[in-house]
């Protein structure tokens, strides 16, 4: 009878250990999926930021060209007249 109690205690501990391992593995897999999702989100964010920078640079280049044209036009119109 004592042998059976000890065997059940060992079996219960072993079963609890296996359940803990399965839960740990499930948590690790969940973390792996979350990390992959975060890397994908980071990649998308970087692409959006690059697109926004490109658009801003294009707009600034257009503004610079317009300003140069205005300055050139105003300096040629003044032609020494105060």
Instruction: Give the quaternary arrangement of the chains.
Output: single chain
Residues in β-strands, percent? under 5%
Number of distinct beta strands: 0
Name the average pLDDT: 93
Number of H- or I-type helical stretches: 1
Q: Give the class from helix and strand content and strand pairing.
A: mainly alpha
Low-confidence stretches: none
Radius of gyration: 35 Å
Describe the structure.
This protein is mostly helical. The chain contains one helix and no strands. The longest helix is centred in the middle third of the chain and has 77 residues. It is rod-shaped. The model has no long low-confidence stretch (mean pLDDT 93).
What are the defining features of this structure?
mainly alpha; rod-shaped; 1 helix; 0% strand; 82 residues
């Amino acid at each position: 009878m004592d042998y059976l109690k000890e065997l059940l205690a060992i079996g219960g501990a072993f079963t609890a250990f296996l359940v803990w391992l399965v839960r740990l593995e499930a948590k690790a897999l969940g973390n792996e999926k979350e990390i992959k999702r975060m890397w994908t989100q980071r990649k998308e964010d970087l692409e959006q930021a690059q697109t926004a920078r490109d658009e801003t640079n294009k707009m600034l280049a257009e503004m610079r060209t317009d300003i140069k044209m205005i300055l050139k036009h105003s300096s040629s119109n003044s032609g020494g007249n105060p």
